């Protein structure tokens, strides 16, 4: 493989990173929680519109540095959408073909974005088949299977290098409660939680990490049982988080707490967060918000003060035909009303009932 080509590819990725300012951290005012503050790290402001932009960049750097990606390599990934969108962007940046192996139920908006960046979508009926199908496709064309579910926890430098944990804590430095009581994230590959959990320990922060999980996902049960054979027959309905099997990148020992959030609560919280923020957010941000509000209510009940930081993972424009469509919710049998009422009361009164 040409070292000159690899060197130029690395330069292109670093130049792209240099053109992009760090994502914003902003505070949401919640009067029912005096002495406390909630912050959102806005990952939707990345060039490809989601948290997965960080992961895709790291996976490409990892693949290039390991000699797995060359000038003729077809990049193949198993993804429910956002990672594939971001990887398609970086593949186009390097002039490489890209194929995303995705569940057929993936939102049309994400499929269109992958096509926009020149990628091709290979749809499968069962989410459980994406791994083997992606591996087989890569082998058949002599390409490289990125395998985000294995490599995400090791491709990112958890010690720093402007990873998401270092960015959050650097931006919190001048805030009233500079060291958060909690950081709240969801888990798809587990790479983000692994990076944050490791960094908190490495830098000796007192901040604890809470991972929120969804229905039809094994992470919550695995964290309690450590049974790596757990599987779930149904796919997660909250795109980007939740998995039907235990992924290698999920590191349970760096997670201090897990909260399971019903899908209806995730989507009710998504709509509430969108109203409070004045912009549409995605379903995984709703899951994060629901977990963050529960923790704030617990802190208030315990007489604690402090800050909670969570992620705005992507924008709601990707889900206009699903999560924001009442007809889609009805077809899925999802009733937001009870969860919406509970969340509204929690935000207004500070109590988790």
How does the major sheet shape up?
A: 6 strands, mixed
Give the CA-based shape.
globular
Give the mean pLDDT. 94
Whole-number radius of gyration?
A: 20 Å
Give start-end ranges of low-pLDDT stretches: none
Extended strand count = 10
CATH topology name of the largest domain, in short, is Rossmann fold
What distance separates the N and C termini? 60 Å
Helix content: 40-55%
Strand order of the largest sheet: 1-2-10-7-8-9
How does the SSE layout of this entry go?
Elements: H1 3-19, E1 25-28, E2 36-42, H2 52-65, E3 75-78, H3 82-94, E4 98-103, H4 108-116, E5 120-124, H5 130-141, E6 144-145, H6 148-155, H7 164-171, E7 182-186, H8 191-202, E8 208-213, H9 219-225, E9 257-260, H10 263-277, H11 283-301, E10 306-312, H12 326-332, H13 337-349
Parallel strand pairs: 2-10, 3-4, 3-6, 4-5, 7-8, 7-10, 8-9
Antiparallel strand pairs: 1-2
Detailed description of the structure:
- The chain is α/β, with parallel strands linked by helices and 353 residues long.
- It has two domains: 3-51 and 157-349, Rossmann fold (3-Layer(aba) Sandwich); 53-152, 3-Layer(aba) Sandwich (Rossmann fold), CATH 3.40.50.1100.
- Helix content is 44%, strand content 14%.
- The N and C termini lie far apart (60 Å).
């Amino acid at each position: 493989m040409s070292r000159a080509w690899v060197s130029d590819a690395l330069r292109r990725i670093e130049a792209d990173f240099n053109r992009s300012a760090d994502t914003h951290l902003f505070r949401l005012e919640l009067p029912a929680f005096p002495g406390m503050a909630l912050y959102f790290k806005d990952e939707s402001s990345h060039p490809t519109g989601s948290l997965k932009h960080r992961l895709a960049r790291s996976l490409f750097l990892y693949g290039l540095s390991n000699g797995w990606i060359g000038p003729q390599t077809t990049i193949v990934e198993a993804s429910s959408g956002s990672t594939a969108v971001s990887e398609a962007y970086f593949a186009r940046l390097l002039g490489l073909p890209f194929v995303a192996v995705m569940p057929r139920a993936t939102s049309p908006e994400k499929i269109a974005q992958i096509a926009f960046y020149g990628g091709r979508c290979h749809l499968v009926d069962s989410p459980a088949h994406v791994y083997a199908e992606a591996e087989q496709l890569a082998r058949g064309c002599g390409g490289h299977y990125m395998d985000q579910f294995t490599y995400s926890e090791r491709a990112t430098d958890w010690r720093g290098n402007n990873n998401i944990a270092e960015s959050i804590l650097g931006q919190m430095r001048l805030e009233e409660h500079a060291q958060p009581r909690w950081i709240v994230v969801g888990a798809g590959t587990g790479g983000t939680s692994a990076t944050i959990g490791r960094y908190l320990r490495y830098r000796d922060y007192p901040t604890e990490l809470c991972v929120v999980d969804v229905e039809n996902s094994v992470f919550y049960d695995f964290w309690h049982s450590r049974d790596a054979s757990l599987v779930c027959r149904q796919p997660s309905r909250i795109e980007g988080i939740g998995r039907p099997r235990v992924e290698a990148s999920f590191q349970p020992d760096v997670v201090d707490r897990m909260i399971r959030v019903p899908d209806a609560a995730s989507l009710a919280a998504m709509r509430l967060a969108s109203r409070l923020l004045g912009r549409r957010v995605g379903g995984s941000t709703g899951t994060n918000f629901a977990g963050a509000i529960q923790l704030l209510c617990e802190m208030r009940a315990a007489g604690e003060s402090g800050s909670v930081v969570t992620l705005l993972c992507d924008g709601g424009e990707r889900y206009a035909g699903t999560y924001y469509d009442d007809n889609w919710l009805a077809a899925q049998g999802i009733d937001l009303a009870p969860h919406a009422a509970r969340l509204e009361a929690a935000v207004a009164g500070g109590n988790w009932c």
